[in-house]
Each structure stands twice: as C-alpha cells, then as structure tokens.
Amino acid sequence: MSSFYPQYDLAGRIQHTKLDTGFNDMPSARMPRVETTASPDFKTVFSGLVENLNTEVNAPDNLLKDAMSGSKNVDIHDVMTAMAKSEIAINVATQVTGKVIQAYDRVMQIQV
Questions:
Q1: How many structural domains are present in the chain?
Q2: DSSP classification of residue 82
Q3: Would you tell me how many other CB atoms lie within 10 Å of the CB of residue 81?
Q4: Which residues of 82-103 are buried (b: 16+ CB within 10 A; e: fewer)?
Q5: What is the pLDDT of residues 20-59, one digit of tens each?
Q6: If DSSP codes are grouped into helix, strand and coil, which group holds residue 24?
Q7: The domain containing residue 18 runs over which residues?
C-alpha cells in the first residue's frame, strides 16, 4: 500500500545541526532514510488509490453480510466503523477529484 504514495527525499531537505553528532556515545537524533529513489508515476498512484477506495466502500457490505449470517467475529460496531471509514474515504476521493480537475483547468489556461 505504501507504494501508492509519492516518496520524498526528507533526509536531503534536513539541515545539518548539532543533532547529527553523537554526544558521549549517544546515537544521532536523526531518523534513517525512509524513501526510495524511484517513485511511481501518476497513473500508478491514482489506480492504487481507486482500488483502495473500492475496497473501503465494499467493506461495510461484506461485514454486514457476515453479521447478518451470525458470524461471531463481526458485530454491529464493526459494521458502523466500516461505514464511517467508507464515508470518509468517499469524501476524500471527492475532494481529491475536485482538486485534480481544478489543477487541470489551471494548466489548460496557461498560454504558451
């Protein structure tokens, strides 16, 4: 799932300070590198996000079917939590879609 998010060179952006040097054999306070040099393209990122959205939207239905069939592992609280997560995911997807369309419109207004 983490391959769908853009990778940033955070370690390269951090300025060197006194935190970089250990004091009396203390380790450095800097975190190790967390990103890779290759980042996925736009299409890969959005196709992964759409797949995750589809999974989030279908989760409440699947949990509700399990709860209705009498499964001991699922109760109504799990269904309600999944519904709330699904609603949030749809709201985020709607906002992201609107921002992408706004950015596309702005790029198309640029005169060469």
A1: 1
A2: H
A3: 13
A4: beeebeebeeebeeeeeeeeee
A5: 555 556 565 656 666 665 677 878 887 888 888 888 899 9
A6: coil
A7: 2-109
